[in-house]
Write a structure and sequence with these properties.
With 95 residues, the chain is an alpha+beta fold. Helix content is 49%, strand content 19%. The chain is built from four helices and three strands.
Length: 95
């Protein structure tokens, strides 16, 4: 099979992408306090203070940071959870 079969379940390329790791991307915004972002990363992902602060400063300085990588369903759940804290987040296939 060459990955171009588009039968009942879609292409095999699509199936492979679903099994591939996905990134949760946290985006900078002008409203959220740095202390809130650090607190959310620690609570949601279980990160220690140093890692949460490093990721938060990456978001602040670079505009975004990949805060978690793993299976698509869990990435989507983390994204929704971040939205629950009014933080801008998306998921994307890992490059």
């Amino acid at each position: 099979m060459d990955g171009t079969d588009t039968g009942l379940y879609g292409s095999t390329d699509t199936l492979q992408r679903l099994d591939s790791p996905w990134d949760v991307v946290l985006w900078n915004d002008p409203v959220s306090l740095i202390s809130l972002v650090v607190r959310v990363l620690r609570k949601l992902f279980g990160y220690d203070l140093a890692k949460a602060e490093k990721l938060t400063m990456q978001v602040h300085n670079e505009g975004k940071a990949i805060v978690w990588t793993g299976e698509k369903e869990k990435a989507a759940a983390y994204c929704v959870a971040l939205h629950g804290y009014a933080l801008a987040a998306t998921i994307q296939p890992t490059a």
